[in-house]
């Protein structure tokens, strides 16, 4: 947790360890610290390692983040005003993996939560972030697994967010 970079990179790392079962409010407070730090350094691209094993129902995760929390986190990262490269990794509660990925991407794209999406935990508020304006790519693509209803086999599916139309289109394997 105290690593700050080595060689030519001192100060290039910011580590914010999370307590066991950290909820949306605690995680978002540290995310805001991280975004302020990112905003203070030069660069035009942010690479997001979107680990969805932080989900409250994940069988191997230690945190307690919710679908609504993912939407708010995506929204806060999206208004940072930098281009985003989003790499989905981790996430083993397969039944909700696509929903959580879509929630984060909706937030990052400046779109409202999907109809019927869960409400945020207490202490989580969505509002304007001072000095930041949305930087929305035209299309975001995320891959997520889907369990076939008849065979029970998991196979890849994708979700495309076309922010020009504000449309979310689930699709089949590529």
Notable traits:
174 residues, two-stranded parallel ribbon, single chain, 25% helix, globular, alpha+beta, 3-stranded antiparallel beta sheet, disordered C terminus
Give a description of the structure.
By secondary structure, the protein is an alpha+beta fold. 25% of the residues lie in helices and 21% in strands. The protein has 3 helices and 5 strands, in the order αβαβαβββ. It has helices spanning 24-39, 67-78, 94-108, and strands at residues 45-51, 83-89, 139-147, 154-162, 167-171. The strands form 2 sheets. It has a 3-stranded antiparallel β-sheet, covered by helices on one side. α1 packs parallel to α2 and α2 runs parallel beside α3 (94-108). The longest helix is centred in the N-terminal third of the chain and has 16 residues, at 24-39. It is globular, with a radius of gyration of 16 Å.
Question: Summed up, what is this model?
Answer:
With 174 residues, the protein is α+β, with helices and mostly antiparallel strands. Helix content is 25%, strand content 21%.
Q: What is the CA-atom radius of gyration, in angstroms?
A: 16 Å
Q: How do the helices and strands follow one another from N- to C-terminus? A: HEHEHEEE
**Coarse shape:** globular
How much of the sequence lies in strands comes to 15-25%
Count of distinct strands: 5
Integer average pLDDT: 77
Biggest sheet strand order reads 3-4-5
Count of helix runs: 3
What does the main sheet amount to? 3 strands, antiparallel
Strand pairing plus helix content: what structural class?
A: alpha+beta
Head-to-tail CA distance between termini? 39 Å
Q: Approximately how much helix is present in the residues? A: 10-25%
Low-confidence stretches: 135-146, 154-174
């Amino acid at each position: 947790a105290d690593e700050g970079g080595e060689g030519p990179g001192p100060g290039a790392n910011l580590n914010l360890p999370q307590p066991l079962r950290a909820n949306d409010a605690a995680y978002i407070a540290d995310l805001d610290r991280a975004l302020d730090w990112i905003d203070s350094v030069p660069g035009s691209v942010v690479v997001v390692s979107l680990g969805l094993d932080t989900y409250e129902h994940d069988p191997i995760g230690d945190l307690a983040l919710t679908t609504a929390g993912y939407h708010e986190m995506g929204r806060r990262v999206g208004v940072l005003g930098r281009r985003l490269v989003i790499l989905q990794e981790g996430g083993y509660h397969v039944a909700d993996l696509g929903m959580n990925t879509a929630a984060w991407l909706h937030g990052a794209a400046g779109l409202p939560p999907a109809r019927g999406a869960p409400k945020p935990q207490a202490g989580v508020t969505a509002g304007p972030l001072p000095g930041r304006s949305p930087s929305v790519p035209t299309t975001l693509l995320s891959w997520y697994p889907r369990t076939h209803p008849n065979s029970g086999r998991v196979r890849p599916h994708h979700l495309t967010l076309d922010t020009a139309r504000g449309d979310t289109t689930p699709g089949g394997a590529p």
